[in-house]
Amino acid sequence: MSQAAARALSAVLVARFEEAGAVPVDCAVLQSAETLLDLYGEDIRARAYVTQDPARGELMLRPDFTVPVVERHTREGAEPARYCYAGEVFRRQEEHPDRASEYVQAGYEVFDGSEPEAADAEVFARFATLLADYPVRAATGDIGILTAAVGGLRISERRRAALLRHIWRPRRFRALIDRFAGRAPVPPTRAALLASTDPMAVAAPLIGMRGEDEIRARIVALHEDAAEPPLSAEEVTHLEALLKVSETCPFALERLRDLAIDLPALGPAVERFARRCEALAARGVDVEALDFETSYGRTSMEYYDGFVFGFAAPGRPDLPPVATGGRYDALTARLGGGASIPAVGGVIRPDLLIALGDAA
Q1: Tell me, what's the pLDDT at 41?
Q2: Can you give the pTM of this predicted structure?
Q3: Which positions fall inside the Class II Histidinyl-tRNA synthetase (HisRS)-like catalytic core domain (predicted)?
């Protein structure tokens, strides 16, 4: 399959987005590495192509369009606003070397805070319509529900921040839960620091990698953490049950409402989910058959903080999702200097649609 074919199909998709009122935008291929590192941390280096410019400093080949579109809207946009775009993105594929590291995306973004659940439904329904003739199945989730559950746990703010930081790393998140609940043994190096009458001597090998003040602050934090009572077994049980919710939307909503009785912090997020289901049904989406998983998107959608969705081909497990998207209000707040601009959007990969069409 040629890049030309993918670009041609992306032009068709962009035209459909324009018919819905979206303004086409173009974004530079080279993006500020500083901005992306600030958002995603050093982990993004493993997924992006980095280069140096003598005038602009460290740059990255565009890993996605969302960040530059948000930056443009923050500078120039007025709400409500809809944008569409198409072009190449670049991502290293160390875990999947057989997958393309350069490919075309076509995307649609909505900035509208008047009715967030209605905007969620608009974006999803538009994608479902565009993909209706392809052999794909949709899945949805809501990062906001898990975030709300963590926000309601009876733990210190330090522990809460650690869990929120690792929501997108399920193994690390699970390890933290086990540690905070007292289920995991204390690592030997940590145990030595906690038991020592001279912890700086134990930490001496780290000096040079970190400043002495930073190490002392870390030792204090470790002692404070060790003195904190464990996360209750009851809360762990409820959290584990939440992570296992995987049903069609109506059954998932029923289960989540049951869990909200024991985890009351879930209440507002669950009711947002209920309103989204109503908005989706109003746009003709068969909510009765639409899959929902609490954990959906946790390994690949790290800047989303609410509704998430994806369309994948069940008969082609070798392919990544052909379309993904979701809500990213927190991202707009960070790029907007604290002023959150409610936003939701998604992208489609034309090359994968062509591959599915060729296989049909």
Answers
A1: 67
A2: 0.87
A3: 5-195, 220-347
